[in-house]
Every structure is written in structure tokens, then in C-alpha cells.
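To close the section, here is one more complete example, presented without commentary so you can practise reading it yourself. The ligand is heme C.
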Amino acid sequence: MVSHLLSKFLHSGLVTLAGALALAGPALAAGGGGSFQQPANNDVSNVASLQRGARNFVNYCQGCHSAKYVRYNQLARDLGMTEEQVIGNLMFGAAKPTETMDIAMRPADGLRWFGIAPPDLSLIARSKGANYLYNYLRTFYVDPKRPAGVNNLMLPNSAMPHVLWDLQGLQTAVFEEEEHNGVRQVVFRKFEQVSPGKLSPGEYDEFVRDTVNFLDYIAEPMKLKRQSLGILVIAFLLVFGIFAYLLKQEIWKDVK
Ligand code: HEC
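Output:
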């Protein structure tokens, strides 16, 4: 009975995993050559990373993007911070910890300034995936033809400026024409750094990973609880399985 349950449990886990892989496939394939894309490798159970990510978000993203489904006091609870720490480190515009991560910029202004209003980022990790976000923030490159002077490999002609340029530095992208079955297409070859940033490439990747980790967490705060609950459930099943086995031995001992 227990082993049956356990195998069922594991089986459904495998099915979910297979489904997730099937979904991840086309997402990774999109956006051209693919050679520049790296997995985000973020971990929503890493609280220190989430705290750094929250700080990055507040300092570098919230000027334009809201996260209007997220309350400051929920952040305090989930990220192991006191309300005072949240007020001191994360709340610059809001008045009360019960408020959500809104912004002062009106969508109409965003539309006027950028031609497209910066989207709310509460659920962006769910719609685009952590890997996409990780690569989006790493693949801005200099393009004088664009209004903000930069373009992006994941979202060609993105209206977002490269807001992390002082950290990453600036890079140009080298494209080459290739012929595939008689069809000429332009493919991305490599980046060339034109000015250094304050962070080394490795440090910049960590900075982006923390930021994406935070976006991943706010898109599904329940993920944190579900993971720890899942471990408890499996531990319980294992321990319960041992006792059930011992009990069965005990009961059948005299029958044999
Ligand atoms: C100066 C304003 C500004 C800041 C600051 C800013 N963004 Fe954006 N962002 C935009 C605009 C404008 C768009 C819409 C781009 C488009 O759809 O062309 C956008 C779009 C996005 C998207 C959606 C991309 C897609 O595929 O649809 C993500 C994700 C994003 N921003 C993340 C961030 C993160 C993370 C930060 C902080 C590190 C940040 N942004 C900071 C203006 C900004």
C-alpha cells in the first residue's frame, strides 16, 4: 500500500518533470542561434539570494516596473526580515508595510516615454520563465539605431533601456550572414565588450541570477512552501513505510 502510494507519488513527479522539460524545449529554442543562452540556475529556497534580489529589484527596476501583487509585509515574512529591515532597505516610496510594491509612474507616462508601458513584473517569471529573464538581462547590446541606444537578443527591438549598463558595461553584438538550405539569415556570433562595467562578468551573472530569483519567487510565493512541504511529505512516507513494513513482518510472522 505504502510502496504503491510512493511509486504513484514519484510517478506523478516524473510526469510533471517530463512536462516541464517538454515546455522548456521550445522556449529555449526561441530567440535565434541559442548559443548565448544559459540556464538561470536560480534557487528560490536560497533566502540570502532572494534578499539580494529584492534589493536589486527595488534599486534598479522599481523606478519603472511595479510588482503590484506583492506586499512588503509578506516579503518580510518570506525573506526572514523584520519589518524594520524591510522599511529601511526596501521601502522607498511606500508608506506602510501592508502596501504593495507599486510605483509612482503612471502607465500613461511610461507609454509616452518608452512607446510601450513597462509591464508589472509580479507574474513575469510565470509567463516568460526564469531562463528567459536571465538571458534577457544579459543580452543587451549597443545599437545606435534604437531610441535607447541598445537592442536585445531575447526581445529584438525591446523598448527597455539597458538599465544595468553601469554594472555590466557595454557590449556590441557580432552578427554573420549564413545560408541554410538556400535561405540567407543573420545569426548572432558573439559579444564584444566595448567598455567595462563595475562588476566582472561572473559577478554580473550572479547579480542577474539573484534578481531573477526574486522575480521567480514573487511570481509564485507558494513555491517556497510547496518545496519544504514536499520534503516533509516524502520524509513522512519513508518513515511510515518502515513502520508499515515492520508491522507487516510482525503480523505475518506466525502465519508462515
Ligand atoms: C527606465 C525604465 C525601466 C527600468 C528601470 C527597467 N525596465 Fe524593464 N522594461 C521597460 C520597458 C519600457 C519595457 C517594455 C519593453 C518592450 O516590450 O519592448 C520593459 C520590459 C521588461 C520585461 C519584459 C520583457 C519581455 O519579454 O516582454 C522584463 C522582464 C523587464 N523589463 C525586467 C526588468 C528588470 C528585471 C529591471 C531591473 C533590473 C527592469 N526591467 C528595469 C523599462 C524599464
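Once you have examined the C-alpha cells, check your reading against these statements. Residues 60-61, 63-65, 114, 116, 118-119, 121, 124, 128, 133, 136-137, 155, 158-161, 163-164, 211 surround heme C (CB under 6 Å). The chain has a mean pLDDT of 86.
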